[in-house]
Each structure stands twice: as C-alpha cells, then as structure tokens.
C-alpha cells in the first residue's frame, strides 16, 4: 500500500503531541514514531509519499537495529533504493513505438518518453542508494552534489557539484538516506533549479517532520518519497527513531 499524502502539512511537535494525547486511538498512543500509519487522520498540508509496503518496512526495521553491520546496512540501503525508485518512477510519461516482434511482425512497444532521468546522490550517504536505483534505471545520467553538515549550526556546507550538461531537459531524482533538518535537501534543490532543472523528486529512506516542512515551504513543487515518516529530531539534529548516521554506517567510518 502507498500513502500519497498530496500536499500535507506537518504539524508542530506540540500539535502532534496534543493530537497523540486527545485524538490518537489507544492502540497507537505512546507510539508517535509510527506516525506513517496514522498520518492520514491528521488535517495537514504537505507533499510526501510514504511507501508503506511489507518489504520496505521489513528492510527498514533491520536497518534500525543497533548492531546492524556495515555490510548489512549498505546492502539494505541499496535494496531500499531500488524499491523506492520503482514507486518514484510510476508517473514517468511513456510513448508507444513500433518494433519487430519475435516472429518478424510489427508490434507496439512502450518506452519512457523524453530524456532519461539524472540521479543526484548527495555525497556521501546518497551514494549508498545509487546502485540500487541504477538497477532499475540503468541509462540514467548521474550528477553529484557534495554537502557536509556543520555539526554546530547543523547548516549544510557545499564542497562539490557536478551536473550533466543538459540537466534543464531532464527530470532529477535526489538520493539521500536521511531527511533530517532539510537544509541539505533545500540547498541541493536550490542548486538544481539554478542550473535550470524543472522536474525534481527526492528519495529518502527516513524523514523527520521538521525536514519535510522545510523542503515543502521552500520548494512546494518537489515531491518527497520516503520509507518512513519518523517522530522528530533530537537536540543534536538526529532523526528519532531514525537510523543514526547513515553515512558512517554505509561506509564503515562510525
């Protein structure tokens, strides 16, 4: 099942807690981290698609385990990237064309219309999703954005960018396992639009309400696809329950 929360507003944490206290079904009370299962009950306005699928939930749960190894975390990141790309490409425009069938007769085929997508992994953690997405979109062109977070201000600091030359003619899929504060995502979208890119989607494994709201406020035309909409950010800017530092876990530098 896919919950497509078209233009949903993420309430403040105070509002969420009030909702939890006064309106949430007793079976969910105290389980604010499971927000992706009851968000449809909220009157909110934000643009996000939460991919609620058994395999997605299973693999994400394995990634949340405290002792998840580097190999396992990296493999699961790759696999989830592939599953999410399937849903993010669901509305790609297609066109019919003529081709020769197995018996030599002319038959109709279907192909994706226009320029192939450009994948934009945010360095470094976004690289963990790249191979999985490429499994589904092998002809995609790859652009890169390098951002690192200032651990004191939590603001993104750019250090690298490399875009395909005709990016203004291609749809872009931004890859980043975590959407926490949203600063890196907004900065990446800013850079893409500055280069003329007009169709942008973001693929993230886990999102925090604060980050989703920031992206939606800055770029309401950009749709976010995530495997889970988690509870909140802690005082250090980490998503709760989250995954920890995805970059460190993917590359074994924790």
TrEMBL record:
Keyword terms: Allosteric enzyme, Glycosyltransferase, GTP-binding, Magnesium, Nucleotide-binding, Transferase
Binding site for uracil: 239, 244-246
Record-listed E.C. numbers: 2.4.2.9
SUPFAM superfamilies hit by this protein: PRTase-like
Class of this enzyme: transferase
GO BP field: UMP salvage; uracil salvage
A single GO molecular function term of this UniProt record: uracil phosphoribosyltransferase activity
CC annotations in GO: cytoplasm
Family, as annotated: Belongs to the UPRTase family.
Protein name: Uracil phosphoribosyltransferase
Organism: Moraxella equi
The encoding gene: upp
């Amino acid at each position: 099942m896919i919950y497509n929360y078209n233009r949903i507003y993420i309430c403040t944490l105070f509002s969420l807690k009030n909702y939890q206290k006064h309106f949430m079904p007793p079976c969910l009370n105290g389980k604010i981290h499971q927000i992706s299962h009851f968000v449809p009950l909220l009157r909110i306005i934000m643009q996000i698609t939460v991919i609620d699928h058994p395999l997605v939930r299973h693999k994400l749960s394995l990634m949340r385990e405290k002792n998840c190894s580097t190999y396992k975390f990296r493999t699961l990141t790759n696999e989830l990237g592939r599953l999410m790309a399937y849903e993010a490409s669901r509305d790609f425009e297609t066109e019919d064309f003529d081709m020769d069938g197995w018996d030599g007769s002319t038959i109709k085929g279907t192909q994706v219309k226009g320029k192939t997508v450009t994948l934009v992994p945010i360095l470094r953690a976004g690289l963990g999703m790249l191979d999985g997405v490429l499994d589904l979109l092998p002809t995609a062109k790859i652009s890169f954005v390098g951002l690192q977070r200032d651990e004191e201000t939590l603001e993104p600091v750019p250090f690298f960018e490399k875009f395909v030359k005709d990016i203004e003619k291609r749809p872009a899929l931004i890859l980043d396992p975590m959407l926490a504060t949203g600063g890196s995502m907004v900065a990446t979208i800013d850079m893409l639009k500055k280069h003329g890119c007009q169709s942008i989607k973001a693929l993230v494994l886990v999102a925090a309400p604060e980050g989703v709201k920031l992206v939606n406020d800055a770029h309401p035309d950009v749709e976010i696809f995530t495997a889970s909409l988690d509870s909140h950010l802690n005082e250090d800017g980490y998503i709760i329950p989250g995954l920890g530092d995805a970059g460190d876990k993917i590359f074994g530098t924790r």
